[in-house]
């Protein structure tokens, strides 16, 4: 429990530091949202009045304190790019779309990587091993956006399994909504599934060569029992950390994929806010991504302790 509380405290400090750094970074970048709103023909009086209205005339520390106070209190911050629309409402409207893509991608990752990792190893690295290693190498090498373009060309234009650029709103047709997100989720899943397969299979093969496996086999334990009850459990200890990083990448890394498939999620909203220097919206989305990464790593640490009790014992001795 002490370890979990300590990790939670470190996670909160990390999020605060990320919010501070992102605020400072976007505050010193060239470009002014006032110029974006009023254009180049605005008078100095109009510019000064709008800067005062938006709070841009204040010092950077004061602006950060005001922004964090409004964010933590749940007060609606108005977007600059989207004509004063509340930032929280805009994020909550698009959040179900990005979360659904991420969950579908994680499901595809597990459905691909776990069965592939459990394939029996051939003697001396046979044809199945070499084929699997080649496929994982290709999957790791292909960028997600390029895979999205391939899916659009092959499955959308050629095979016509979906209509490229068409998004179905979940409030209108939930089944069509899930169907329209399958290929974007698969484009995110394939490279990450290749990474997880590489790590998990290597860990399983390493465990199968351990002394305790040979002892269990000599006592009459079947290969499947040794694989699922012993080797897989120990291999998951090292692979959970990788999966935690993959979760963070999936939840925060669909920006380009949403652009390719024309999906109105968090990623497209972030790109639009960056292009228009919508600082309030950018900082709120950055905090969302930071929370996702921190929570994914925190859950990975907790899961590792649940899987391997020896780590809990070491933590209790250490702390």
Q: Biggest sheet, in brief?
A: none
Derived from helix and strand composition plus strand pairing, the structural class reads mainly alpha
Mean pLDDT: 81
CATH class of the largest domain: Mainly Alpha
- Count of strand segments: 0
Number of separate helices: 14
Model regions low in confidence, pLDDT < 50 over at least 5 residues: none
Radius of gyration: 24 Å
Cα(first) to Cα(last) distance is 11 Å
The CATH topology label of the largest domain is MetI-like fold
Under the CATH scheme, which architecture of the largest domain would be assigned? Orthogonal Bundle
Question: What general outline do the C-alpha atoms trace?
Answer: globular
Compressed to H and E, one letter per element, the order equals HHHHHHHHHHHHHH
Strand content: under 5%
How many domains, as an integer? 2
What is the assigned CATH homologous superfamily of the largest domain? MetI-like
Give the helix proportion (percent range). over 70%
Question: What can you see in these coordinates?
Answer:
This protein is mainly alpha-helical and 319 residues long. The chain folds into 2 domains: 31-75, no CATH class; 87-318, MetI-like (MetI-like fold). The chain is 78% helix and 0% strand. The protein contains 14 helices and no strands. The protein has helices at 2-28, 33-38, 44-54, 60-73, 87-117, 127-141, 144-158, 174-208, 211-218, 223-252, 255-261, 266-275, 279-307, 309-318. The protein is globular and about 85 Å long. The N and C termini lie close together (11 Å).
